[in-house]
């Protein structure tokens, strides 16, 4: 359901966005898988992110082919291999965040298309995936990055927070309530907001800075304050956002995700500046280089990734409001889960301060 023109005046024209979407579709394999680049590997999270961009850009058949790949390749326990190449499994482990993200893509595609039949057809896969993921939730509420592990990632759990909200929205639409998921979401939200130190220390990565905002756990003034806190460490004026705080690298996907985070807390002008700044990564065919080492002006890594182009399209949609899915990262219409306390989460013994 397109509400307007998918374009960002002065930054991206409709033809440029279509060109980027076509560059993603060109890398898509006959199976429906969307690898990082032609001949590269596919992971379940970036595959879904790319499918979302195809939906937003109006390439519906290609997007639905990608979701059909997800439905067809899901394992019995609800997971997917972390890495496949040309249909062959290269890494059989199951990353919980990777598996949860299908819910975001399915809900987004429904918002864009209004196709309730699609939602119903994908619901069994979403339900199995979320059940698998919540089996990795610890007693305090965070989600182990793999099942049977007590190690949890702040970025991954923040993304899962968003996935759970989308999954609950789907459950409501198909009239299949999941009260256990509501409890799991509430516990996860609580630990993300109040007990950040339970997560592995990955503070050098910009994603650990902005993902609690992007994933919807921290919003409003608290979200704006969080983004202000480390802005000088991660944002390079005129170029975009760093991947890590100790290397001279800016990366396109992180820049666009930061723009989405800013848009979600009302910082539209800063989001537009970032989207404009990262256009130096654009290639003539509409694809985007993954990053730049700004200390010497060299592309690094030397690859143009589908998910970088996808992040550009999704940021452009959020800022233009062109599709009915443009508010998906803003959390428009999504449930918030059941509120919980330290006692409910078993966090009373944690002497930690919220990040």
CATH topology: Glycosyltransferase
Q: Point out poorly predicted stretches.
A: 349-355
User: How many H/I helical runs?
Assistant: 15
Strand line-up of the largest beta sheet: 5-6-7
For the record, the CATH architecture stands as Alpha/alpha barrel
| SSE pattern, N- to C-terminal | HHHEEHHHHHHHHEEEHHEEHH
Report the sheet with the most strands, covering strand number, pairing sense and barrel closure: 3 strands, antiparallel
Task: Please indicate the count of domains.
Answer: 1
Structural class: mainly alpha
CATH class: Mainly Alpha
Please give the oligomerization state of what you see: single chain
Description:
50% of the residues lie in helices and 5% in strands. Helix 5 packs across helix 7. Strand 1 and strand 2 form a beta hairpin. By secondary structure, the chain is mainly α. The C terminus is likely disordered. The termini are far apart. The protein has a three-stranded antiparallel beta sheet with strand order 5-6-7. It is built from 15 helices and seven strands. The chain is globular. It has one domain: Alpha/alpha barrel (Glycosyltransferase).
